Amino acid sequence: MGFFKKLTSVFSSTPQKPADLSYWYTVRCKRCGEEIKARIDMRNDLSIDYDSQDGGYYTRKVVIGAGHCYQQIEVEMRFNARRQLVDRKITGGEFVD
Questions:
Q1: Distance between CA 54 and CA 82 in Å, rounded?
Q2: Which one of 28, 72, 76, 79 is most buried, counting C-beta atoms within 10 A?
Q3: Contact assessment for residue 69 and residue 32, using Cβ atoms and an 8 Å cutoff
Q4: What 3-state class would DSSP assign to 88?
Q5: For residue 20, which of 35, 3, 39 has the smallest C-alpha distance?
Q6: What residues are paired with 36 via a beta bridge?
Q7: How far is residue 4's CA from residue 8's CA, in Å, rounded to a whole number?
């Protein structure tokens, strides 16, 4: 089997690591102050925004911390057609930059 492994390694390329198509953000709970890091999968979590003029995308997430508070933090984000952040709103918390 060693011969076949060497032969296939000559003809096959090294597998490429898939690009990380995630948008990471951090929010702070207004009630307890806990900072929560969350992510949006840019391939699966975005929905088409039909109200947008440029064919952008929209997502809505509810983030809950791991502490004792369990306050729901609602995040709404809008992206353009190139999946770049255009607008963001938050309820129950604030964004940490």
A1: 10
A2: 79
A3: yes
A4: strand
A5: 39
A6: 27
A7: 6
- Tell me the sheet residues that pair with 34: none
pTM: 0.73
Helices assigned H by DSSP within the chain: 2-11
pLDDT band at 10 (very low <50, low <70, confident <90, very high): low
Which residue type is seen at 94?
E
Q: How confident is the model at residue 73 (pLDDT cuts 50, 70, 90)?
A: very high
Tokens of 65: 């911390």
Q: Residue 69: what pLDDT?
A: 87
> Is 70 exceeded by the pLDDT of residue 1?
no
Q: Which two tokens stand for residue 87?
A: 């607008």
Which one, of 22, 36, 46, lies nearest residue 94 by Cα?
36
42-65 pLDDT tens trace: 999 999 998 878 889 999 999 998
Angle in degrees, CA 82, 90, 19, rounded to 5: 35
Q: Is 90 helix (H, G, I), strand (E, B) or coil?
A: strand
pLDDT at residue 13 is higher than 70: no
